[in-house]
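stuck on this fold:
=====
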Amino acid sequence: MGAAGAALAISASLVAALPATPALAAPEDYCAPGACLDILPPGQNGSATLVEILGHQVFGTRPKHSSSQLDMYDNLVHHYDGLTDESLDDFFIDATFGVDEGDVDRRYQPRDDVTITRDRQHGIPHVQGTTREGTMFGAGYAAGEDRLFLMDVLRRVGRGELTSFAGGAEGNRGLEQDLWGTAPYTEEDKQAQIDRVADSGERGAQALADVDAYLAGVNAYIDEADSGRYFPGEYVLTGHKDAITNGGEIEPFTPTDVVGIAAMVGGIFGGGGGGEVQAAVVLANFQDRYGAEEGLELWHAWRMENDPEAVVSVDGEFPYAQTPDDPVGEVVPDDGSVEPYSIVHDEYGSAAATAQRAEAEQSEAPGADAPTVEELSDEQRAELEQMVEDGDLSAAEGIFEDGVLPEGFLDPRGMSNALLVSGQHTESGNPVAVMGPQTGYFSPQLLMLQELQGPGISARGASFAGVSFYVQMGRGADYAWSATSAGQDITDTFAVELCETDGSAPSTSSRAYVDSSGGCSEFEELSVSNDWTPTIADGTPAGGYTLTSLRSEFGLVRSFATVDGAPVAFTELRSTYMREVDSILGFQRFNDPEQVTSAATFTEAAEDIGYAFNWHYVDDTDIAFINSGANPVRLAGTNPTLPIDAYSGSGWSGWDPATNEAEYHPQSDHPQEINPDYIVNWNNKPAQGYTSGWSTGSVHRNDLLDGRVAGLIGDGHQFTPASLTATMMEAGVADLRAEQVLPLLLEVIDTEAVDDPELAGTVESLRAWTESGSLRREPRRDAGYYDHADAIRVLDAWWPLLVRAQFEPGLGEDLYTQLTRAAQTDESPSGAIGGGEPGSVNQSQAHRGSAFQYGWWSYVHKDLRSVLGQEVDGTLGDQVYCGEGDVDSCRTVLLDSLAAAAATPAGDVYPGDGHCSAGDQLCADTVIHQSVGGIDMWPIAWQNRPTYQLVYQFSGGR
């Protein structure tokens, strides 16, 4: 039997290669009947052998369990009307502990002290160890089985070495450049972080032992898959393994790889702050236009750091990161002097060539009924075997031409939501939670499901591939938890004086700075060199470059500029930089049944999470919210919203530049609440006083949740898991602009009759849409069009035209443009390709699902209310922009821009891409899983909801 035959045989009979074991005792479980559920599309199995990849490309096969959850996930958007508790399992999978005997697909022991059981329907690993070490080993082994190539991609991103591993595609270059610009580390840096946590006490030592055992499991699987020739086929397609000789190596994983992956995950989903230089540029533009005093007042109004109308998740005032009354050390760069620092150097070959690549046409992925390779005919299987024996891999050419992960993957985005209702407002008297993280859509998914049972650990849920030694969001025996990205300000920008070590006059080209002792020190250069050559997967011509980040005591250099003519570097310092693995202790506690016994003890455990998250908790009696993060205590006078003079006495209290340790706000200073009537969060402001990002005001996408849940409670509704799920789903297909802002636009327009019959018809179509619920939803599955499709097209075209027409005349072109760089104007579901210019429709990425987090909805909303003479708490200063405050003039602005939008062809609103033809509205909105391997998924309907979603209700507890 040749290599291909071996791969086929192994994939079909792996169960025979490992010892079978008897059924294990079930752990204690307090789920309410049918009320512990979750879903993580597309499927658990994220690994495909070379033969399976070729089978997918040639015959449309798909590996078993690779897509079993995708249709279930997608179907909810089409069938949430009339949803019942009994029908929830059509859309979610059972999340109780253990596997029923009749549902066991495989049960095996990768070593004597651990058993892995996988269920028949979805192949989820249930890991049960008789020792702690065995449990962790099993978690690592299962991770290798399900996500090995993805884990390798993520660790290469963490090293800044993605192109040399996966190819020189532009997407790969952009991704590694983003990461190396924000979280560059030497191997010594990473090891120092590990050592510090390991030396921090008993839990730290246990965490290191857990990681070591986990990696032993990963590496054991690598050895077995390599020798058995059933490793992921992407290793062959990227040139790391030979399909015929099995030559080459899959590099073992090390603890420092875990640090790199943690830095990437934490930076994307648990970071916050930054952007102070652009904030200062906007301030300078306000003051240039309106004068120093009025310009500052208007800047504060537009900044909306604590808008009184902003929706919040918990009651109470929690002051943090506010602008001080008497700021010290604020810095504003000279006009036009900011020069972003590029970390890319010494480019050659394709790295130095001007990009001319057009987006590749994407072939249609096979659907849910795709067979497995094992289900092909003997002739088809023989054809695949022969292709491998002959080295004919042409069917898989170019699968990574666009990169293994999308450009912009590391851009911090608001994601995830949570709805929790207290037992006072539920049918059963036990609280209900529907919650989960929105982590994008990938094939395989970045997250993976698992159950871990062993000494000191009892949990089931989702974990990021490569750091899945603990469940990061999921459940224990009688409690469940999840997170949303909080984004509070844990990153500050410092203005650092430049100097020359020889004493000569510095310039913005200088690469030395004045350190905290007053001496002149060269920036530390953190460099990684990458070279690539064409492969089957990525035919990008040979090339390479060196990435060099510059590090100072005050953080990483982001740009150079002058301040009052003096050259400076602007550096960013994140409180979790050099402390990426500290949060491991909090996750360890979440998984420990002895550590979490109540809402109060969960809140205490969250204090060990340094990343900026909002945590949501439910058990049989309580719901809770707690915000986590290493929030630095800032010295008196420090303004975190603007760059800080590094030598002014402002900054972080107790800060040690050698370790980046500082004094942090205690947990009591973080927004938190136990047992309110309900909790909803969609990456909104957690509480009053807790400083928010730009444009966080009277309209936020969390209003879509808050209004529905509060309204139902006000009507006396008693929630069930099904009714809360349906509430989430309806909000997940609502257009925020249409629901919250369009009624005001129509109110201004309705001050007079619309004379033009065609435009009047457009107005009425918009009115009919918003009165029907403002949903972007097909009338039935596979209808191929939205209800109110033309009204949706008009609003998609109108919004960017409206924003510009409403505000640019009053602000002026320069200030308007700078504001759009601080706060994008729109984030529609269709997005667009390439990012777009300020104010254009192209303000988000297509096919991502997550939408309406960022936009000028609050600015439009407040300004129109001012025009109409309505009460506005927290105005845009003393300026009214639409028609300079005159209702008739504002109405003309609205109608003129609306007429232009109505006349915009669908092909311009939805310009098309490699997946969709121009003008295809429904396709433009669809969610498409980005392939991080050789297996593609079919598109699903647009839905603005968590990628991994939990539905939980407990009927008892320990």
Q: What stands out?
A: DSSP finds 25 helices and 30 strands in the chain. The two ends are 55 Å apart (CA to CA).
